[in-house]
Structures are given as structure tokens and as C-alpha cells.
């Protein structure tokens, strides 16, 4: 083999090695190829009636929500304070939210009571003091919340397992919630209630821990029905359907209560990182709607709203609104319109 031929072969091998290195260097990184798929917007507009924010920077949180609206196909959003106790040093209420919300008329609405009415409710349950003076202060505060511009009350709770807040319990048919139902009926506004479903006394389900939760849970569905029956004109919105921590919030229970109580409405929530029990979707957060849930949503299409429990600004990773949209986009068009916007506009009297 001639020296000329050897030299040409060496040049060719050198060129191949350079090109191989370039291809390797310029390849997409594993992190990019394994990144989460692009968010899918709702196929028709929807209103989210249950969202939270960073109370240390309300303006930035609401601005983040406004920026996210086109990505989600979100028409309106309702913010509310979490259900606090008196011990929560960071608790806040409608007065913290309204100045920022007024910058976005027709886009952002507010519920109130989580930072003031709910602590009063939980404290009354703890002490047993629900006398005339307590009721008077509770009613005055409820009226002040509406006068400040809230479109309803929330987030109230009667059974709340620890997450960002401590364990909370109050009887759903206690004097203060019955009083709040009367105020809500008088002003034609809804009450958003967080209540884990406990049809009968049960041991604390796994994987919930005691402490901080009690080792035994007391039945609450019968008391909830007494609240619903107390004032049929009061619109009661039971939060977090689809995110069930006890295993008892089934489509069968929902159907029975919706049939018995025309003033009961339900928010739909899914959490892709914390699926819990009785999800309406086959794989928890992104599969097909289960037939029994689709029939429930169709049969009672006037009684459901979207209440994602999304927090703004968003953290990294899968979002609750994305899981809700995975369900929402599978609904028949007419059902989707009612659950997406029509029901919320009617129940919350949004413009």
C-alpha cells in the first residue's frame, strides 16, 4: 500500500472521528429528552373556583395567575384564604386579597372567611362556647367579608387532615355553620367547605398518621346533611371531589347526596403528585374517565364546578390544573360548558 493511500485513509478516519465527536457533543441532553410533555390547555374555557396564593406577595401571585390564564384557557379565577386556626401566625383574609384582585376586574374574584370565620368555627368546637356573643361576632364578621367584596365564603372546614394546616374538626351542623348558611342564603352566595368523608366512626385510615391526626374519626355525613337541610336556599359547595383521603368519597355517595339535596354542589380536584383514593381517572391523574364518574358528571351536570386547589405562583413539576384539564377535556361538549363556566357563573354570580 502506497504512502499516499495510507495518508488519505488517515485523513478519512480523522474526519469521521471529528464528526462523531461533534454529533455526540451536540446531542440533546438526557434531561431535555426526558422532560415533562408540554402542557395541554383546556379545549374550552373554564373557571377555577378554588385557588390559593403566597400571602407574603399577593400582587405577584395574582400576576402569575393572570399570566397563566392563556396557557390553561382559564376564563376566571377565584382565590381564597386557606382554612386557618387561631394559632396560625400567618393567617390572613379577604382584606389582604381584595386590593390586588381589584386590579383585575372581571378576571379575579375572592372568597373570604378562611382566616377569620374558620378559626372562630374551630375554636368554638374546641371550647364548646357558641353562646350569643360568639354568634354575634361571627355573623358581624361574615357580613363584613361580603361588604369588602367577597363573592362567598371559603375555605371553611369541618374535617381537615394536616398538610399546610393542623388537624381541624367542627360539627357541620353546629350553630356557627348553620348561622353562616343563613347569611349565605340571605345574600345568595356560596360556602366552600373542606370536609373529608367519614360516613361512620372509623379508625384513622392508612397512610394518615396519629398524631397529629386523631386515631379515631367520627362520622360527619349525617351532620353535613343536616347543614344542607337547615336552609335549602344556602348554596353549599363541597370541595375536593376526586381527591379522597379516607376512601369513602365515592361516586355512589356523591350521587345519593346530590339526589337528596338540591343546594349541594361539588368542586372537582385532582392532584398528580398526591392522587389519593377514588380518582375519576383510570390511572389517577391522566387516564380515561371511569364510566361511573362520567355518568355522575353527566346526570348532575348542573352541580359541579372546577376547584383545582392550584397554588400561584406555580412550583416546578406537574400541576393540579393540568390533571383537571386531563379530565375536563374528556367531558361531552355540553357537559363541559356547564362544568367549565356556566355553573360557576350562576353559583358565584360572576360577571
Written description of the protein model:
The chain is of the alpha/beta class. The chain has two domains: about 1-35; about 45-350, Metal-dependent hydrolases (TIM Barrel, Alpha-Beta Barrel). About 40% of the residues lie in helices and about 15% in strands. The protein contains twelve helices and 13 strands. It has helices at about 5-25, 30-35, 60-70, 95-100, 115-125, 130-145, 175-185, 220-230, 250-260, 290-300, 320-330, 335-350; strands at about 45-55, 75-80, 110, 110-115, 155-160, 170, 190-195, 200-205, 215, 235-240, 265-270, 305, 310. The strands form three sheets. Strands 4, 5, 6, 7, 10, 11 and 12 form a seven-stranded mixed sheet that branches. Helix 10 (about 290-300) links the parallel strand 11 and strand 12 (about 305). Helix 6 (about 130-145) packs parallel to helix 7. The longest helix is centred in the first third of the chain and has 24 residues, at about 5-25.
Oligomer: single chain
* CATH homologous superfamily grouping of the largest domain: Metal-dependent hydrolases
SSE pattern: HHEHEHEEHHEEHEEEHEHEHEEHH
Largest sheet: 7 strands, mixed
Low-confidence parts? 1-37
CATH domain class name of the largest domain: Alpha Beta
The CATH topology name of the largest domain reads TIM Barrel
Amino acid at each position: 500500500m502506497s504512502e499516499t493511500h495510507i495518508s488519505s485513509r488517515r485523513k478519512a478516519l480523522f474526519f469521521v472521528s471529528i464528526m462523531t465527536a461533534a454529533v455526540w457533543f451536540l446531542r440533546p441532553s438526557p434531561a431535555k429528552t426526558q422532560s415533562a410533555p408540554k402542557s395541554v390547555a383546556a379545549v374550552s374555557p373554564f373557571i377555577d373556583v378554588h385557588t390559593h396564593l403566597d400571602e407574603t406577595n399577593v400582587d405577584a401571585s395574582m400576576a402569575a395567575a393572570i399570566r397563566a390564564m392563556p396557557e390553561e384557557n382559564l376564563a376566571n379565577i377565584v382565590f381564597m384564604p386557606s382554612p386557618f386556626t387561631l394559632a396560625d401566625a400567618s393567617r390572613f383574609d379577604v382584606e389582604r386579597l381584595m386590593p390586588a384582585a381589584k386590579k383585575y376586574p372581571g378576571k379575579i374574584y375572592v372568597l373570604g372567611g378562611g382566616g377569620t370565620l374558620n378559626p372562630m368555627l374551630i375554636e368554638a368546637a374546641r371550647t364548646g362556647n357558641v353562646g350569643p356573643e360568639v354568634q354575634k361576632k361571627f355573623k358581624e364578621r361574615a357580613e363584613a367579608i361580603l361588604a369588602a367584596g367577597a363573592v362567598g365564603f371559603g375555605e371553611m372546614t369541618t374535617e381537615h387532615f394536616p398538610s399546610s394546616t393542623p388537624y381541624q374538626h367542627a360539627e357541620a351542623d353546629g350553630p356557627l355553620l348553620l348561622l353562616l348558611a343563613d347569611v349565605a342564603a340571605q345574600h345568595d352566595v356560596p360556602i366552600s367547605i373542606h370536609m373529608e368523608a367519614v360516613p361512620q366512626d372509623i379508625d384513622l385510615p392508612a397512610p394518615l398518621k396519629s398524631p397529629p391526626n386523631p386515631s379515631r374519626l367520627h362520622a360527619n355525613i349525617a351532620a353535613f346533611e343536616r347543614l344542607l337541610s337547615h336552609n335549602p336556599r344556602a348554596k353549599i359547595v363541597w370541595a375536593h371531589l376526586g381527591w379522597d383521603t379516607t376512601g369513602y368519597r365515592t361516586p355512589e355517595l356523591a350521587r345519593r347526596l346530590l339526589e337528596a339535596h338540591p343546594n349541594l354542589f361539588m368542586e372537582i380536584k385532582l392532584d398528580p403528585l398526591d392522587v389519593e383514593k377514588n380518582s375519576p381517572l383510570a390511572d389517577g391523574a391522566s387516564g380515561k374517565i371511569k364510566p361511573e364518574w362520567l355518568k355522575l358528571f353527566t346526570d348532575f351536570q348542573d352541580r359541579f364546578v372546577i376547584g383545582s386547589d392550584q397554588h400561584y405562583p406555580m412550583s416546578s413539576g406537574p400541576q393540579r390544573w393540568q390533571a383537571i384539564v386531563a379530565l375536563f377535556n374528556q367531558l361531552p361538549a355540553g357537559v363541559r360548558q356547564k362544568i367549565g363556566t356556566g355553573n360557576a357563573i350562576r353559583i358565584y354570580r360572576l360577571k
